Amino acid sequence: DVQLVESGGGSVQPGGSLILSCTANGFTFDQKSMAWYRQAPGTKCDMVGSFSNNGVTYVEDSVKDRFTISRDNAKNIVYLHMNTLKPEDTAVYYCVNAYNHWGQGTQVTVS
């Protein structure tokens, strides 16, 4: 079975940093793109960024000066590095694989 488990969320003050991790199992991780999405209260779920299996990264314009994505194929982990966090970054963050499997999400609160 595919498992995607996010961790690293929490509460942080504006200007702070967090690193979210997503540990994946049940598929050939190093051959598949991974993505991060987020959903703020009362809004739709939006993509934050992605990291393809061949090393191409994409980060949404709204956060690309503050967020980066990396992955460790040896550990089956994809990371979302978030810096200079703002209250509007408050959301549940999900990792998603190329098969459209979603993790359970991790809450990030900036206040």
Overall pLDDT: 96
- What oligomeric state is this? single chain
Largest sheet features: 6 strands, mixed
Q: Report how far apart the termini are.
A: 37 Å
Strand order of the largest sheet: 2-10-9-4-5-6
Query: What structural class should be given to the helix and strand makeup?
Result: mainly beta
Fraction of residues in β-strands:
over 45%
The count of β-strands is: 10
Radius of gyration from the alpha-carbon trace, in angstroms: 13 Å
Please report the number of helical segments: 0
Q: What is the percent of helical residues?
A: under 10%
Helix and strand string, N-terminal first?
EEEEEEEEEE
Q: Low-confidence stretches at least 5 residues in length (pLDDT < 50)?
A: none
Shape, principal axes of CA atoms? globular
Summarize the helices and strands and which ones pair or pack:
Layout: E1 3-7, E2 10-12, E3 18-25, E4 34-39, E5 45-51, E6 57-59, E7 67-72, E8 77-82, E9 91-97, E10 106-110
Parallel strand pairs: 2-10
Antiparallel strand pairs: 1-3, 3-8, 4-5, 4-9, 5-6, 7-8, 9-10
